[in-house]
Design brief:
The complex is a heterotrimer of chains A (227), B (245) and C (204). Chain A is mostly helical and 227 residues long. Chain A has one domain. In chain B, helix 1 runs antiparallel to helix 6, helix 2 crosses helix 5 and helix 4 packs antiparallel against helix 5. The two termini of chain B are 32 Å apart. Chain C is of the alpha/beta class. Chain C has two domains: 130 residues, P-loop containing nucleotide triphosphate hydrolases (Rossmann fold), CATH 3.40.50; 64 residues, no CATH class. In chain C, 30% of the residues lie in helices and 26% in strands. Chain C has a five-stranded parallel beta sheet, with helices on both faces. Chain C has a four-stranded antiparallel beta sheet with strand order 2-1-4-5. The chains are: A mainly alpha (227), B mainly alpha (245), C alpha/beta (204). The interface between A and C is medium-sized, with 27 and 35 residues.
Chain lengths: 227, 245, 204
């Protein structure tokens, strides 16, 4: 019986969560379907005029991605909380922040990455140019992890509460506004010729900030909620 | 003079102190409001560009400043409560939240009322107004989270963490909203570039002071009732009840 | 090696106990007794660091557990009311992950033999949701066979177990104590360990 390194632990947690997600495949599909549904609602609501849709596209896709991410956040900790495995994780002789980071990464792979891959397909519905689609994907690739991480803080704070999903969204969505602004701003910059890179690098900067701070903050939030 | 400040960090003693302090803030607040509004509405001259409508800033600006200031104070008290485990700090944070939210709300309303004569629309997506709206959501989040948790200790600590995360985010949000606003060449509600008349400055300062005193008075009143509620099972509260207070 | 001094705990507004002292040495087993609602579970959870006590100190080998953190957890094994196993995973997968979280790499052979000893032969690879309550409890208890935690904190470990399983657990506890381990537990069913003096702590 040998000891595990921190990296191996991270991999263990990610594999565990991915394994669990694979055994509940329906959950992954619902997020994707919700994403597609929300995006499709907009043209139905505002009319099919292509010019307007093209202008709205970045914002619509980003907002839909935001909302779809919110859907799955409640499940990040609640299943483990209910069957007692979360308690055991808190008793692990390893840094809880590392375990939390592992869960965040697994959550992103299951909930965020599919959105990144689906977005260009939906972007075509809005007649977005190839370059715009690329910037959209890049932005979502950098931004969806941030949503998973900020969402994890909210999920940890609202663990086991009745208000549940709606309260979680109320807490997390305002914090996600900068990502939304820079993400859709990057795509619009393609059309207007302004700097795409500056928007994307701002998202990247936020991503780094989140990677450094959110696991620890979430671990503290978990300890507060478990008392 | 060595005052034993720690004596007042116990809810029991603070209850009495707060009660005695309230009139010292409430009365000046009322007077200053009257004075400020008088100067603002009757003494300060009509603005060259904006006419009479500009006078709303005497309420809008203090409300804005206080909403942001109170959020930071609230987060500060919450952090103290979280780190040092002092119950009174957490109670103060909970007491501040509704007042802060109220000022944010007033700021938004008065901003809209200002916008209408200026821009002809009831709402404009000005960077500051939008940030104020987001601040209001942050307040709501704090209040909602605290209200959703039954256990008082968990509620205090969870809301405190949220407030701290929120206050770190506020500059980021403000910056991103400004960026967004310039990107889209949005409207800006700004007072005209000319320097303000002395009377306008006086009015602004007086109403700001009035708002601050009001905030203190109301928060002290609210924290008293929070103390009573939290400590309802203790002896000193039963003694108060018997004394008919 | 486990020392508790002047411990006070509350649940909500309600003070459960105060001024609690105990010391548990290697090879000792202690039962926490008390009626429902007197704070047995809260005491055990406080020992694990889930609850913050109102007052008092918990030390492990002379050092405050709040400072030891992970070093304390490495020596601690907790089993509460929940089984802490995932329904969708098999018993084998569950055990390997549990071991992994405790920092131990458990190869399949060792894991399977542990599960067999717990009486789960032939059921190691089924998802635990198809197992009975008693069998799930056995999977949860299999973690007792894995790792070298010195202090076992068990909250009603015998729930849902049949007579054979109860005997097995008593055997495991006896082995653990012989290896200089420590146990603190609560139970509503009788638990007898041959040849070992059972210490008691009563919460009133």
């Amino acid at each position: 019986m040998n000891q595990l390194t921190v990296f191996n632990l991270l991999v263990l947690v990610i594999r565990r969560d991915l394994l669990l997600a694979m055994r509940r495949r329906a959950d992954v599909m619902t997020i994707l379907v919700f994403f597609i549904l929300v995006v499709s609602l907009f043209p139905l609501g505002v009319g099919p005029e292509m010019d307007m849709l093209r202008k709205m596209a970045p914002g619509v896709l980003w907002v839909a991605a935001l909302l779809a991410s919110m859907l799955s956040l409640g499940r990040l900790f609640s299943a483990d909380y209910l069957d007692g495995t979360l308690e055991q994780m808190m008793l692990a002789p390893q840094s809880l922040s590392m375990l939390v980071l592992g869960k965040m990464i697994a959550h992103w792979v299951v909930s965020g990455l599919p959105l990144v891959l689906m977005a260009p397909v939906l972007g075509l519905q809005f007649d977005m140019s190839g370059q715009a689609l690329l910037v959209l994907m890049l932005g979502l690739l950098l931004g969806t992890p941030i949503l998973s991480m900020l969402g994890a803080i909210g999920a940890a704070l609202t663990l086991g509460l009745r208000g549940g999903g709606v309260l979680l969204s109320l807490l997390v969505l305002p914090l996600c506004i900068p990502v939304l602004i820079f993400g859709s701003g990057a795509v619009e910059a393609v059309a207007s010729g302004l700097s795409v890179v500056s928007n994307l690098s701002l998202i990247a900067a936020l991503l780094v900030l989140c990677l450094v701070f959110t696991p620890w903050v979430t671990a503290q939030a978990l300890r507060i909620s478990m008392e | 003079m060595a005052i034993n400040w720690f004596k007042y960090s116990a809810p029991t003693t603070f209850y009495g102190l707060a009660g005695r302090l309230v009139p010292w803030f409430a009365v000046p607040a009322a007077l200053l409001f009257a004075l400020g509004l008088y100067i603002g509405f009757f003494v300060a001259p009509v603005d060259a560009v904006q006419g009479e409508a500009y006078r709303i800033i005497f309420i809008h600006v203090p409300a804005s400043i206080l909403s942001m200031f109170l959020y930071l104070i609230m987060a500060g008290y919450a952090a103290l409560g979280l780190i040092f485990n002092t119950r009174l700090s957490s109670m103060m944070a909970t007491a501040l939240a509704p007042t802060g939210a109220l000022f944010a709300f007033i700021s938004l309303w008065t901003g809209a009322l200002w916008g209408k004569p200026m821009w002809g629309a009831w709402w404009v997506w000005d960077a500051r107004l939008t940030s104020e709206l987001i601040l209001l959501f942050l307040y709501f989040g704090f209040i909602a989270l605290h209200a959703s948790i039954d256990d008082a200790r968990r509620a205090d600590r969870a809301a405190a963490l949220l407030a701290i995360v929120g206050s770190v985010n506020v500059p980021i949000i403000y910056f991103s909203v400004k960026w967004w606003n310039t990107l889209h060449q949005g409207s800006t509600i700004k007072f005209t570039g000319t320097s303000m008349h002395v009377a306008m400055q006086q009015a602004m300062f007086v109403t700001l002071l009035a708002c601050w005193m009001y905030a203190v008075a109301v928060t002290l009143l609210r924290v008293r009732s929070i103390i009573l509620e939290r400590e309802r099972n203790t002896q000193w509260v039963s003694e108060l009840k018997e004394a008919g207070l | 090696m486990l020392e508790v001094s002047n411990l006070a705990c509350s649940r909500g507004d309600h003070r459960l106990f105060s001024g609690l002292n105990l010391a548990l040495l290697p090879g000792q087993i202690m039962q926490v007794r008390g009626e429902n609602g007197k704070g047995k579970t809260s005491l055990l959870r406080t020992l694990c660091g889930f609850l913050s006590p109102d007052a008092g100190k918990i030390s492990w080998c002379g050092e405050d557990v709040r400072e030891l953190n992970e070093l304390y957890f490495a020596n601690l094994l907790y089993l509460g009311h929940h089984n802490a196993i995932k329904d969708e995973l098999s018993a084998l997968e569950n055990l390997q992950i549990t071991a992994g979280l405790a920092g131990i790499v458990l190869d399949e052979m060792t894991a399977v033999s542990a599960l067999r000893r717990m009486g789960l032969k032939g059921r190691e690879r089924l998802p635990t949701k198809v197992l009975s309550q008693g069998q799930r409890r056995r999977v949860a208890l299999a973690r007792l066979l894995v790792g070298d935690a010195k202090l076992w904190v068990l909250d009603e470990p015998l729930t849902a177990l049949d007579v054979a399983a109860v005997a097995l657990i008593q055997e495991l506890l006896a082995e653990h104590l012989r290896k200089q381990g420590m146990v603190i537990f609560t139970t509503h069913q009788p638990l007898i360990i041959e040849g070992v003096e059972m210490r008691h702590l009563s919460l009133v």
